[in-house]
């Protein structure tokens, strides 16, 4: 009887976790809460390394609070947005976003394609954090339950937002970079961001130049002063257009992890590689303008292509093996 009771309990839990009619999670209380069934939990799959090449990206990864941009025409001359509901309904695209042979989540982006707006210069295949999930009654922009704020934001903003402060960790490998185009564009892409209203508190770059076997990691911090006074931080190698093979750089197909963490005005970026010391850089953002009312944040991850001068069929590709994020909630 005890065994039958356990089996019945498991069946009830499985039924509840797969019930599409359940009400949406209150994002102000819980963000990225794992599902009940540990067998099909994407986060568990990531942590155990059990990514299944026969599953779609949303079956291997928790994409319940992400949408996706791909460089196809939405119909109005701008890139297509794949909604949270669509991406979590088994979405794959063999040209841009799919599960690789090793189970990783592949982002592939050509030089040519449609951009997210008429003012954007580059193509992307990139996830955008959507804390509202599939609740489309919440606006995508603003200090609301779709976005988060820094812990030093006004109390009213912290209450209005879906959460405050944030941490995102991604394990990935860069598989291919561009080899055509202008000297300042070749081999350059963004693999993770925090985006604010109009500026980016952080953009993490990977870059490998022609003739080098290893690539660099660096990031930009963009204050809100509107003067384009970006602050640049080299972590491994540099952002130089002519750097020789960077010492201790990262090769194509080499797995590494980046971690972005904000606590109040302190931004910490860490690069983690097996068998090597962590590389850590900290930025004090107290004078950057993000701790005032009305500034909202969201993570981005994937591949933002930064070459629009190469051959149309030239491309970049990255594969993610883990992607996790969290926020402090009221």
Describe, in plain words, how this protein is organized in 3D:
- With 330 residues, the chain is mainly β.
- The chain has one domain (2-18, 25-328): Jelly Rolls, CATH 2.60.120.
- Helix content is 11%, strand content 35%.
- The chain contains 5 helices and 17 strands.
- Helix 5 links the parallel strand 6 and strand 7.
- The radius of gyration is 20 Å and the shape is globular.
- The model is unreliable at 1-44 (pLDDT under 50).
Structural class: mainly beta
Share of helical residues:
10-25%
Taking the alpha carbons of the first and last residues, their distance comes to: 43 Å
Q: How would you sum up the major sheet?
A: 9 strands, antiparallel
- Give me the count of strands: 17
CATH architecture: Sandwich
CATH topology: Jelly Rolls
Uncertain segments are: 1-44
Our count of helices gives 5
Number of domains: 1
Kindly provide the name of the CATH class. Answer: Mainly Beta
Gyration radius over CA: 20 Å
Strand proportion, as a percent range, falls in 35-45%
Helix-strand string: HHHEEHEEEEHEEEEEEEEEEE
The average pLDDT value, as a whole number, equals 88
What is the general shape? globular
């Amino acid at each position: 009887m005890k065994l039958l009771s356990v089996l019945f309990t498991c069946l009830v839990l499985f039924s509840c976790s797969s019930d599409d009619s359940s009400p949406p999670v209150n994002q102000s209380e819980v963000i990225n809460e794992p599902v009940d069934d540990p067998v099909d939990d994407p986060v568990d799959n990531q942590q155990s390394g059990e990514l299944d090449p026969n599953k779609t990206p949303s079956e291997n990864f928790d994409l319940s609070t992400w949408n996706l941009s791909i460089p196809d025409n939405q119909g109005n001359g701008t890139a297509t947005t794949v909604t949270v509901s669509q991406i979590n309904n088994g979405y794959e695209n063999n040209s841009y976003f799919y599960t690789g042979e090793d189970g990783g989540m592949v982002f592939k982006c050509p030089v040519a394609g449609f951009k997210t707006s008429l003012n954007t210069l580059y193509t992307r295949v990139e996830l955008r954090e959507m804390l509202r999930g599939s609740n489309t009654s919440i606006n995508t922009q603003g200090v609301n339950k779709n976005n988060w704020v820094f812990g030093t934001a006004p109390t009213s903003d912290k209450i209005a937002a879906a959460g405050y402060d944030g941490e995102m960790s991604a394990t990935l490998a860069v598989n291919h970079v561009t080899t055509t185009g202008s000297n300042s564009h070749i081999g350059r892409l963004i693999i993770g961001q925090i985006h604010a209203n109009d500026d980016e508190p952080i953009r993490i770059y990977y870059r490998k130049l022609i003739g080098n076997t290893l690539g660099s990691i660096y990031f930009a911090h963009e204050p809100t002063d509107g003067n384009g006074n970006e602050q640049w931080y080299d972590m491994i190698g540099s952002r130089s257009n002519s750097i020789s093979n960077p010492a201790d750089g990262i090769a194509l197909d080499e797995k590494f992890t980046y971690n972005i963490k904000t606590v109040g005005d302190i931004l910490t970026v860490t690069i983690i590689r097996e068998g090597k010391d962590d590389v850590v850089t900290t930025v004090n953002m107290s004078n950057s303008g993000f701790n005032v009312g009305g500034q909202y944040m969201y993570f981005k991850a994937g591949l933002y292509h930064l070459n629009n001068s190469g051959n149309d069929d030239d491309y970049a590709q990255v594969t993610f093996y883990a992607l996790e994020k969290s926020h402090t909630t009221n």
